[in-house]
């Protein structure tokens, strides 16, 4: 099997099942986040409330991340993923119950809002374990020589689900309301749980079972901070997402600036994922591991430009195009980062490294949502988005200047080593 085969990873049955599980989970999670955002902003009309949603998820996700990585490296991955999905299903059912018309009529807005925040907080706990478990499981399903191809298909699946989840959320809110939209989300979580039974249990490759927690965490952190390629990719993406992401403010743009309603909100929310999915599908035939450092820097720079254009736009379709292009370049960034992590991380440390990744990048989405909510509250929505895009451009320029080794990063040698 050649690493140049664009369908190499898809020739493994369990990997296809894994993709179905990941699609269903990401679809459910992204749709749920959109429905929650819409419901909360409709209830409060306060941009800060959107930031609080992100904060409620990021606190447990970051607080538990390193501990979760330790647990993932110590436990069997398939069963651990089942527990994560079951936890998400319970949370989805709780949100479904909170959106019952009878509940909404019986309790004050503040009580419902606190209930939503509490369930989002529990979702952050689940997410702390979910990301590292998924990252570790991929490496146990396919051989090392096709890790880049598997990472590309996994990221593509993630983006496709991110396209359909938000798009369906917007139309679903309009057609069947928030309550039954939550029921659809719960159904997809059950689909993921059922499909996962078709993947067999996997061996635990960590030779240090029972290792003290703090020693284990120190080993994982030391590896990340000593591996320049990993640290550079995580840091660059974290700062770009933290300051450049505007998705948390999309309900404001849809309702108060562009005046396009829930259907337009769904289109806006899906546009970045459409661009990223197309980029990722193309990358299965045109790999991105050559000159990876330069490509990553250019991709993040392009992302910042797109955010500035989106923030200044007063036209719906210009806004959609800007978000689409931001997703396209962000897809390049995601693929390169995942390829770096898969190629550079030892099997016995995948859980811990993925946890650090979730702290740097995954949680920066929620911190970015909080940052966007706060800056929008005090600077205005448009100014907040333009400020974030400008900070992204400055970050890329600074990284290119102070880290010439990262700028020259090329992953071709790593790919050749795994192929041989």
Describe this structure in words.
The protein is mostly helical. It folds into 2 domains: 7-210, Growth Hormone, Chain: A, CATH 1.20.1250.20; 211-419, Growth Hormone, Chain: A (Up-down Bundle). The chain contains 18 helices and no strands. The protein starts with 12 loop residues before the first helix and ends with a helix.
- The CATH architecture of the largest domain can be named as Up-down Bundle
Oligomer: single chain
Task: Tell me what portion of residues adopts beta-strand conformation.
Answer: under 5%
Order of helices and strands: HHHHHHHHHHHHHHHHHH
State the end-to-end CA separation. Answer: 11 Å
Compute the number of structural domains: 2
The CATH topology of the largest domain is given as: Growth Hormone, Chain: A
């Amino acid at each position: 099997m050649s690493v140049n085969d664009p369908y190499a990873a898809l020739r493994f049955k369990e990997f296809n099942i894994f993709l179905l599980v990941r699609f269903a989970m990401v679809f459910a999670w992204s749709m749920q986040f959109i429905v929650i955002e819409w419901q909360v902003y409709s209830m409060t009309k306060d941009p800060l409330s959107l930031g609080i949603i992100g904060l409620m998820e990021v606190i447990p996700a970051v607080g538990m991340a390193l501990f979760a990585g330790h647990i993932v490296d110590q436990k069997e991955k398939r069963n651990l993923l089942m527990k994560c999905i079951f936890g998400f299903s319970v949370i989805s059912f709780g949100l479904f119950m909170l959106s019952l018309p009878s509940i909404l009529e019986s309790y004050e807005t503040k009580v419902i809002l606190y209930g939503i925040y509490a369930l989002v907080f529990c979702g952050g706990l689940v997410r702390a374990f979910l990301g590292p478990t998924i990252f570790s499981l991929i490496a146990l399903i396919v051989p090392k020589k096709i890790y880049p191809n598997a990472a590309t298909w996994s990221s593509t699946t993630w983006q496709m689900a991110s396209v359909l989840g938000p798009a369906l959320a917007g139309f679903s809110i309009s057609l069947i309301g928030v309550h039954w939209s939550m029921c659809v989300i719960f159904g997809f979580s059950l689909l993921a749980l059922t499909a996962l039974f078709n993947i067999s249990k996997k061996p635990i490759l960590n030779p240090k079972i029972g290792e003290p927690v703090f020693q284990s965490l120190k080993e994982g952190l030391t590896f990340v901070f000593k591996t320049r390629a990993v640290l550079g990719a995580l840091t660059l993406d974290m700062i770009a997402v933290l300051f450049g992401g505007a998705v948390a403010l999309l309900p404001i743009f849809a309702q108060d600036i562009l005046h396009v309603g829930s259907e337009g909100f769904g289109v806006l929310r899906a546009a970045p994922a459409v661009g990223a999915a197309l980029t990722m599908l193309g990358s299965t035939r045109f790999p991105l591991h050559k000159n990876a450092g330069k490509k990553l820097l250019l991709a993040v720079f392009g992302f910042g430009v797109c955010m500035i254009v989106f923030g200044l736009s007063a036209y719906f379709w210009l806004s959609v195009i800007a978000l689409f292009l931001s997703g396209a370049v962000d897809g390049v960034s995601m693929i390169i980062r995942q390829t770096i992590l898969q190629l550079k991380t030892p099997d016995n440390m995948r859980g811990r490294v993925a946890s650090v990744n979730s702290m740097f990048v995954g949680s920066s989405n929620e911190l970015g949502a909080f940052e966007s909510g706060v800056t929008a509250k005090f600077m205005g929505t448009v100014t907040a988005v333009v400020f974030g895009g400008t900070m992204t451009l400055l970050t890329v320029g600074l990284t290119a200047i102070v880290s010439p080794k990262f700028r020259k990063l090329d992953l071709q040698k790593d790919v050749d080593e795994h192929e041989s």
